[in-house]
Amino acid sequence: MQTTRRQFNLSAVALAGAGLGLGKSALAADTIKVGVLHSLSGTMAISESVLKDTILMAIESINAQGGVLGKKLEAVVVDPASNWPLFAEKARQLISTDKVAVVFGCWTSVSRKSVLPVFEELNGLLFYPVQYEGEELSKNVFYTGAAPNQQAIPAVEYLMGKDGGSAKRFVLLGTDYVYPRTTNKILRAFLHSKGVTDADIMEEYTPFGHSDYQSIIANIKKFAAEGKKTAVVSTINGDSNVPFYKELGNQGLKATDVPVVAFSVGEEELRGVDTKPLVGHLAAWNYFMSLKNPTNAAFIKQWADYAKKHNIPGDKDKPITNDPMEASWIGIHMWAQAVTKAKSTDTDKVIAAMAGQTFKAPDGFTIEMDPKNHHLHKPVFIGEIRADGQFNVVWKTPGPIKAQPWSPYIPEDKGKPDYPVVKKA
Q: I need a labelling partner for 95 at 20 to 30 A (CA). Which of 73, 361, 389, 411 fits?
């Protein structure tokens, strides 16, 4: 796996600005600035770099159709470099110095938690495009990825069902930060509600960038050998997924024996990995590249053309789309629709206009932004890894389901409001 597949290309942003035929001062006056806050270096670049490119593709597309409010969009791209405090610094820079109207960014929940106080203090607007643990609802954030009931809970229900192998024991394996720990807290409570005891749950965490999974895989095999059907739920994030999946193959841990379902591994993370030993292992998302529908076909073609035009390493020859790319694509187009409806980029006016926005998504459904809780209604798909690194969908919901930001499986969530609340200082 090459973690520098899409290194940030400063010249590409410069060319985008030059293509408008405007000088620097004119750009400031005649464009709407859009912040892009994704790690283009460090452990999360393997996942986040493509989201920068997705936003730039969307900006190019929107500008080609006349822009927003008669103005072209101008990307302001920064690299917080997988450094969580730096995310907050860069967010403040984008809002206070660069004067962006909106920011599209973050992947890990720790990066989102880092920037959240900045957006609430400065009344900025963040679109967050990745599945997360819930337990948050901010006036200043729109969550276009999945809440736990739109990914984690359906995936574990599938594993427990006949089609998923009727698992009775579970390994909760994640990277050591807020998203895996909180998601697994919810999953443990959910498993308890289904009669699974703590003796049948193994929980383990590794740091960001962890690369030695030999002993962990051996322990999983030992845990699985104790009699009951076992499944692994993986919330490993970033480039640690590469050695994890390689070690799965090395130790012959096949999906027929111990299936692994991942929440942060898609087509992008499997690029360059020998997926033949991984055939049958699972991922749960709200979109897969392999979905067959006209909207997805157009999305894939647009990405392929863009990647070739901009000479994006890897994708210019083998274009790949994934779930967070789709969530980013939906988010920026809904924001543009809301700005048009509000006739303003003012944060509060755009927030009001976002309620109930819809968009025809590559997942094949018309997706709605919930009128109250700042989350998308999203379909859920479970896919099996194929030998070519793509996924065969083996289970799906009939249509989009409403997000539950607060999990009904943990008692502290009872009575929490289903609308954004900003804590007062």
A: 361
pLDDT at 236: 95
| 128 Cβ contact partners less than 8 Å away, ≥ 6 residues apart | 105, 106, 112, 141, 142, 143, 144, 145
Q: What is the pTM of this model?
A: 0.90
Residue 264 and residue 242 in contact, taking contact as beta carbons nearer than 8 Å: no
DSSP assignments along 195-225, one per residue:
T--GGGEEEEEE-TT----HHHHHHHHHHHT
CA distances to 192, 226, 410 from 199, rounded to whole Å, are 11, 11, 20
Question: What are the strands, taking DSSP E only, across 96-168?
Answer: 102-105, 126-128, 141-143
User: Are 368 and 266 a contacting pair, CB within 8 Å?
Assistant: no
Angle in degrees, CA 301, 42, 184, rounded to 5: 85
- For residues 15 and 300, which has the higher predicted lDDT (pLDDT)? 300
Select from 372, 152, 391 the least CA-distant residue to 255.
Answer: 391
Nearest Cα neighbor of 15 from 229, 251, 380, 309 is 309
Nearest to 46 by CA among 380, 329, 331, 314: 314
User: Which pairing describes strands 358-360 and 366-368: parallel, antiparallel, or unpaired?
Assistant: antiparallel
Segment 172-221, tens digit of pLDDT: 999 999 999 999 999 999 999 999 999 999 999 999 999 999 999 999 99
Q: What are the residues whose beta carbons fall under 8 Å from the beta carbon of 403, sequence distance 6 or more?
A: 134, 143, 146, 147, 149, 150, 370, 373, 375, 376, 377, 378
**Rounded-to-integer distance, Cα 423 and Cα 425, Å:** 6
